[in-house]
Amino acid sequence: MNEKQLAGEKAASYVQDGMVVGLGTGSTVYWTILKIAEMVQNGLSITGVPTSKETEKLALEHGIPLIALEEVSSIDLTIDGADELNDELTLIKGGGGALLREKIIAYHSTHMIVVADSSKVVSDLGTFPLPVEVVPFGYQKTLDVLQDMGCEPSIRSKNDSLFITDNGNYIVDCAFRSIPYPSTLHERINQIPGVVDNGLFIGYAEKAIIGNGSTITFLEK
Ligand SMILES: O=C(CO)[C@H](O)[C@H](O)COP(=O)(O)O
Question: Can you give the pTM of this predicted structure?
Answer without folding.
Answer: 0.97
